[in-house]
Every structure is written in C-alpha cells, then in structure tokens.
Amino acid sequence: MPNKILESFMNNYLNINSAIITLVTIGLITIITIVAYSLERRITKNSPFYQRFLVHILEGLTLGISMLMLLNIFRILLNHGPVNQGWLYANAQLTILLFCMYLIRNRVTLLINILMPFIYYSSMNIRRLDSKYIAWFAASYIFLVIIDFYIYYETEKLQNSEWKYLGMQTLFGLAWWILLWVDHSFPVVEIFTMLVVFLIFMSIIRFCEKKLQDTMLSYDELKAKVNYDELTGVRNRANFDKISKQLYTTYSQEDDIPLTIAMFDIDHFKLFNDDFGHSTGDNVLRHVAHTIERELFLKDTQGQLFRFGGEEFIIVFRGKTPEDCIPIISDLRDNLRHSPLFLNGSQLNVNISFGISKLEKSDTDFTDLFNRVDQYLYQSKRAGRNKMTAEGITYDFDELVN
Questions:
Q1: Domain 237-399 coded CATH 3.40.1190.20
Q2: If pLDDT is split at 50, 70 and 90, which confidence band does 196 have?
Q3: Region 35-56 average pLDDT
C-alpha cells in the first residue's frame, strides 16, 4: 500500500507539467520580490499618505496580475492533459498568496488574502451554500482570517523562527484545503496529500527567497561602496559626478526652478592631523558630516550632502536660490559651532568656510557652476575663513542674524 501511494505521488507530481508550474511560480515570486523591493525603497513611514497608498495599490496589482498569469499558464498546460486535477495549480496560488503576506506587509495584500476564498468561487454560489459541509467552510474561513491577521502583525517573529514559520504555513495550507474540499468534494485524505505538496512548494520558495534576498543585500552593499564615502557615510564624489550631469540637464531647462550649490571645507583641517594625529582628523570629518547631514534632514532643507574629497564637502539645494540658502547655511554653521567634538578629554571647535552659487543660463555645463562655487569658497578662505561667499559677496558668520 505505501508503495502504491508513493508511486501515485510520483506520477502525479514528478512530471514535466509539474516542473513547469513550479518554475513559473518561482519566476513570479522573483518578479514580485523585485517589484516590491523597488517600490518599498521609494517610501518611508514619513512619506505622504498618497505615496504610501499608491505603492500599496501597485503591490496589490502585482499580486493580482501574478495570480492571473498563473491561471492562464495553467489553462495552457491543461490543453495538453490534466495537471494533477488542478491541485498543483491551487498549491502554486496558495504559495504566492502566503509568500506575499510575508513579503508585502500592507493592508491591500491582507485584504486580497481575506477575500480570495470568495473571489475564486463566488460566495453566492448555490453549490457552496447548499453543501452539507458549509459549517466546515465557515469555521475554516474564520480560522484562515485569524491566521492572515496573525501573519500580518507578527511577520518578523515568524521569519526569525523556522518552527513558527513552518507551523503557520501548515495552518494556512490546512485552512485553505478544507475550504477547497468543501467546494470540490474530493476524498478527505487528499487534504493531507495536498498539504504536504504545499509545504514542499513553500520550502522551495523559502530557499529561493533567501538566495534572492542575499543577492539583493550584496547588491545594496556594493551600491553603498560605490556611492557612499566609507569614512563619513555620506554620498561620495563618484555619486556627485554622476548626478551633476543629470542636475545640469534638468535645471538648465527650467526657468522658474533654481539650483544652488554650496561647497565648504573645514578651516585649518591640517592642524587637527598635525596636532592630534590622523585618527583625530578622521573623527573631525565624521563629526562634521554627521552634524551637517542631521541638521539638513531635521530642518527639512531638501539639501543633499556629498563628500567631495579630503575635507571638502558639497551641498546640493534643489529649488532654492542663494538668498534662500544663506540663512540655512548660517544655521548649519551655528549648530556645528555649538556642537563641539569632545575627544580624549579635549574639546575641538570646528569652523567651516562656504562658497555658494546658483546655476545660470550662461553656464554651458555643470563645470562652469562648480568652478564658480570653488572660486567663492577660496574667496571666503582668503577673507580670513569662517565665512560664506554667495555670488561674490562675502559674509562673516558672526555678523549674520538668522
């Protein structure tokens, strides 16, 4: 008897059509992961509601389209013979539904999971309502909803525990296969067979998911190394060089939207290295970068900070004129001055000098703007440092009133 069960299982599930459904499911899971990963990186908890809502709708559409693609592929395969009476296809659908619950934690995905028993098989269908097992359906559906909500709110705990993860997907699959049993009246023992197939599916997807996540994390690490300064953590010169062309192309065509560049360096930086050592110089660079970047973010200035090289930094202000930037930069300098660096019992006060200019219609490329900003920076240093030069006019920070 066990040999017959094993032989039947192998005939039904170890064939070319089963392999195609499995590969298609893995492919759809990969697409969903990439889409969700790309969309989620565009928003944060502080993003406007409409942005978060739009991203969640797009993620829900991705899930819905994936389910329709799987259905159409199954119908094509069905023309070449039965594919395990549709059960393998059902397990593929359940795998995508559960995977998206773990991957895409939003209310749209939760709602799709809750409504799916009524979407694939109308709740007003007379066969279902007349079934003598309708009580089983009601109980299983309530149980499934509880599981869906638990997964939605406890995803991180489940993913950190393989046993909880396995237990929850077992309960999810069991609830669904009882629902399918009520609708399609197959032998009860098949519920457990299909549940085993579903768990195998989820194991394969879990393995592929981890590999895909490792690949994405490696890509992020590589991207961070390419675009961010290793010492300070802010964007680096390579990233600045890359976006400078985009900035010129975009803002040189805008008549009403200004682009202002501010460049600054640390006054007498060489003395920190000479008097206290290069490790102290590194600490000063980190202190300045972190303080300036924090203040740019907290004050919602829309400024983007780059380390250009050595002790030189650049701030890109989109949509602001030099006049708009003067009080912002003065405030940045004051906050840095009032936040000295304490190191090995010593208080290190750091001053910075600025050059500021905006993109002009006469600039033939970004280099023209950059050279002008660089010239204004050196004008501030020649005037005695701890100063700011905007469009050729030099200001003493201590004389400015914010």
A1: no
A2: confident
A3: 77
**pLDDT above 90 (res 85):** no
A 10 A CB-CB count for 144 gives 21
Tally: H helices and E strands in the chain: 15, 8
- Which pLDDT score is estimated for 139? 92
Q: With helix as H, strand as E and coil as C, how does 328-370 read?
A: HHHHHHHHHHCCCEEECCEEECCCEEEEEEECCCCCCCHHHHH
Show Cβ contacts of residue 239 under 8 Å, excluding neighbours closer than 6 positions. Answer: 226, 227, 228, 306
**What is the pTM for the complete model shown?**
0.53
Determine the Cα–Cα distance for residues 390 and 340; give it in Å rounded to an integer.
26
Q: Which of 386, 248, 365, 231 is nearest to 316 (CA)?
A: 248
Residue tagged 């990963």 (tokens):
37
Taking the C-alpha atoms of residue 230 and residue 142, their distance in angstroms, rounded to an integer, is: 52
> Mean pLDDT lowest for which of 186-195, 279-288, 368-377?
186-195
Secondary structure of 293-334 in HEC code, one letter for each residue: HHHHHHCCCCEEEEEEECCEEEEEEECCCHHHHHHHHHHHHH
Domain boundaries, the chain: 2-227, 237-399
Question: Cα–Cα distance between 306 and 328 in angstroms, integer?
Answer: 17
Long-range contacts of residues 134-138, Cβ cutoff 8 Å, at least 24 apart: 134/182, 136/178, 136/181, 136/182, 137/178, 137/179, 137/182, 137/183
CB 244 within 8 A of CB 238: no
CA distance 9 to 21: 16
**Amino acid identity at 252:** S
Alpha-carbon span 14 to 19, nearest angstrom: 7
CA 100 – CA 97 distance, rounded (Å): 5
CB 389 within 8 A of CB 355: yes
CA quadruple 178, 182, 184, 190: dihedral, nearest 10: 40
Name residue, tokens 């964007």: 235
* β-strand partners of 264: 313, 354
Question: Please, are residues 263 and 355 in contact by the beta-carbon 8 Å criterion?
Answer: yes
Instruction: Find tokens 């682009």 and name the residue.
Output: 259
pLDDT of residue 382: 93
